[in-house]
Amino acid sequence: MKSMNESSVVSKDSRTIVVCGAGNTAHVCVGEFSSNGFTVDVFAPFQNESERWNAAIAKTGGDLIVDNPDGSQTIGRPRYISKKPADIIPGADIIVLPLPEFSLEPVLTAIKDYLRPGAIIMATPGGVVEWIARKALGSTFDKICLAVVHPMPYNCRIKEFGRRVNLIGKKRKYSIACYPRSRTDEVSEYVTEMWNGTSITKMKYFLSLTLYNANSIIHPQRLYGLLHEYKEGDTLPENPFFYEDMDDFSANLIEQCDGELQNAIRMIEEKGGVEGLSAEFPPNSERIKKTYHDTITDMSTYRSCFATNAAYKGIRCPFLKQNDGTFVPDFTNRYFTEDIPGGSCMMKGINELCGLETPTIDKVVTFFQKFMGKEYIVNGALNGRNAAETKAPQNFGFTTLQMLCASAK
Fold it and tell me: Which domains does the chain have, with CATH numbers?
């Protein structure tokens, strides 16, 4: 393991990656990174994940099998797995965070005292990573390199914990943002090697990936399309496919939500002087076609881009099956508990800084918040009793558009 006083720049022969967490994407990362020649450790601080994974290694010998979409397999293995940051983090050249946003602050807080200067923290798929990292790391933030890789590289599901994971689809084109910008080329080279020959777009602004929360543009609006007539006590006869059964009503809501964010992007660019932001932040329909060019069979409509995307195949809605065979929405699922406060309310907050209205976001959030037992938006404003729990920029100290734009530049 490396000490805290070693070089502040990761050398080209540095090979140690720490993957944080033990979820679906973390499993594939461990398999792919180790098969690509990196030494991979796992920091698994949640619940009993480290114990479970070490138990699986003791039983099976440690190989992690990734079942690829083409029928082939990628086989790798972790070196060490621990829930104690002191065991894992000091030796890390790169720390990968394939985590939901609510996990980022506790993980970053746990590891900050063990980070060596110059280490790369690489989060995927993005969101308000920079704002969270500045808050969690404090003065340590300026001693490390923070990067975001977007979108999340994989659609995948664990088949056997610590042993086998099914890779449904893999993205081939990524955008990255980096702080400090001077290390963007270095990070790009690592991302290409880690994810095995990917295409990289280097972003000028970290804000471009902070604002791009694809899950929150898509998930709540799709669910509103399915549930907008739902009442407490209602049941649903079936659980449809989230993407394959996409209808025009839901697709239009997604496009409207994205349009409201696009309005804010243009104002930030024009009034805030963040030149080129809109070029880095094209409409979601364009981003989907670019990201999934090889897996969408029908790009004729926005709806068909979702419905015919092989990378989205087989994903059901976050509904719970009842004893009588009917279904009810699971309002504790991350599509609600993460995507609404973490993304929808962030987009609402951005628009409020711009002085813009968001009728689609307001409609969707106010409909679902009552089922979640929360109050985020009241009378068209982000001022409900739970607004402080959201990832809105106001909760990170950005109280004016000028402050946000100054930080972005």
Answer: 16-203 (3.40.50.720), 213-408 (1.10.1040.10)
